[in-house]
Amino acid sequence: MFSLDGYRALRTSAARVRHTDRGVIALAGRDRATWLQGLVTQDVAAMAPGERRYAAYLTPQGRMITDLWVAARPDRLLLDVPAPLAAALRDRLDGLIFAEDVQVTDESARLAVWEVYSGGGSPSGLPGALYLDAGEALPAEVAVLPEVDLDTYEVVRIEDGTPAFLVDMDEDTIPLEAGIEDRAISFTKGCYVGQEVIVRVTTRGGGRVAKKLVRLRLHAGTEVPALRGGIWRAGTSVPAKLFSGEREVGRITSAAYSPGQDAVVALGYVHRDFVEPGTEVTAVWDNARAKATVQ
């Protein structure tokens, strides 16, 4: 349940979030890094223990199987993935091991995923993420921080324009459409699955894709029935389409009431002709209509 105090902690100081929506897959064996290097978009081969990098795992057609965080440990790599996908991803990855010395295990039931989010004026030296064994205590500097629930975190995520897999991205998404390439893709590493499509779009196509994920701000005072409870996600309610005049130009994938903006904010895909900040569109939930501006 949304907490205004938790929201303020995320925005102005620091807070911790237990990510029960995340699962963890562990890779062990001496070939783990070089093997994973050929699968994901991020350069993981030279990661030092303690490093954590955001990446995507793609099909040969350049569409997303999942996004993930790769965390390096002295004896293994941890893949922080959406919890509903963990078991299937473990099996999929295990099936790609041939002669390599790699062992894949699903550690979701054993490891708890914590993230520390720091806003303005937050203390320095805090870890970004922790993967703790069942019963393992939080470090003292993290334990003293307020714990914020996932609903409150979700509001901040949408405000910040950070897409979530299974919500704003799915198996039909190309990373360039979601705008995660600066965080998730290394353009200097060697080959990986789906690289040919990414290179073709970025170099020959100038990065142009048919649609892009944008942040939207619904006009103040707009009543949106589909947002009862404060948060809306595609697939959990009636579809939310975006129009310019009578032309359908996109769809909303997630939305929430923002205390900071005193308005409903959203993430959604729009046709590339409508991505410029200040562009006005109309969001439609069944018979409810709301004016929205691209941020």
Helix- and strand-based class?
Answer: alpha+beta
- What's the structural domain tally? 2
- Helix count? 8
The ordered string of helix (H) and strand (E) elements is: HEEHEEEHEEEHHHHHEEEEEEE
**Spatial gap, N to C terminus:** 27 Å
Strand order of the largest sheet: 9-13-12-11-14-15
Q: What do we call the CATH homologous superfamily of the largest domain?
A: Probable tRNA modification gtpase trme, domain 1
Shape label: globular
CATH topology of the largest domain: Gyrase A, domain 2
Note the main sheet.
6 strands, antiparallel, barrel
Q: What brief labels describe this structure?
A:
Elongation Factor Tu (Ef-tu), domain 3; 8 helices; five-stranded antiparallel β-sheet; 295 residues; 15 strands; alpha+beta; Gyrase A, domain 2; six-stranded antiparallel barrel
Structure, described:
- The chain is an alpha+beta fold.
- It folds into two domains: 4-160, Gyrase A, domain 2, CATH 3.30.1360; 211-294, Beta Barrel (Elongation Factor Tu (Ef-tu), domain 3), CATH 2.40.30.
- Helices cover 19% and strands 35% of the residues.
- It is built from eight helices and 15 strands.
- The strands form three sheets. Strands 9-13-12-11-14-15 form a six-stranded antiparallel barrel. A five-stranded antiparallel β-sheet has the order 3-4-5-2-6, with helices on one face.
- Strand 12 and strand 13 form a beta hairpin.
- Helix 1 packs across helix 5.
- The chain starts with a helix and ends with a strand.
- The model has no long low-confidence stretch (mean pLDDT 91).
